[in-house]
Design a protein that fits this description.
Layout: H1 7-26, H2 44-48, E1 54-55, E2 58-59, H3 60-76, H4 82-108, H5 113-143
Antiparallel strand pairs: 1-2
Helix pairs in contact: 1-3, 1-5, 3-4, 4-5
């Protein structure tokens, strides 16, 4: 069974893939020669050149780098609410990646293999945090009082 101790390694994998995708975004001439362009449908180039590759003018791969750095930091931190922050950070990352997957499948009509690997990495991180801290994180929200 994958344990919480694997979150730093998964975060580093996410960072490395996101760095590569960011590189491909800023050096578009390398996109066509990328190993993840297998066909018209399995094409990192098609996805990385779409409008969905940017969020408010920022490459989503660059956002991914910072997201995985945050998760890496949280996985090593011992602060009081670190586990709750890790749970909600991974949930947010997973929701964002699912949004991008839906865009790939139904709008762009192409699938980026590396983006799918990033999705699987964040899914693994989220499932680990759900198992380890899900109840605690949901209780945290229930205990918030807006008075």
């Amino acid at each position: 069974m994958i344990s919480q101790k694997s979150i730093p390694l998964l975060s580093i994998i996410g960072i490395l893939i996101s760095v590569y995708l960011t590189y491909l975004h800023y050096v578009p001439e390398k996109l066509d020669a990328s190993f993840c362009n297998i066909s018209n449908y399995l094409s990192c180039s098609t996805v990385n050149q779409s409008s969905y590759a940017l969020l408010f003018g920022i490459p989503v791969a660059l956002i991914g780098i910072f997201g995985f750095i945050l998760i890496l930091y949280l996985s090593k931190s011992k602060s009081q609410y670190t586990n709750v922050a890790l749970f909600y950070s991974s949930a947010l990352g997973l929701l964002f990646m699912l949004y991008l997957l839906i865009a790939e499948l139904f709008v762009i009509k192409a699938l980026c293999i590396l983006c799918t690997v990033v999705l699987l990495v964040i899914l693994a991180i989220f499932l680990i945090t759900v198992k380890a801290h899900g109840k605690e994180s949901l209780q945290f929200l229930k205990d918030i009082r807006f008075e």
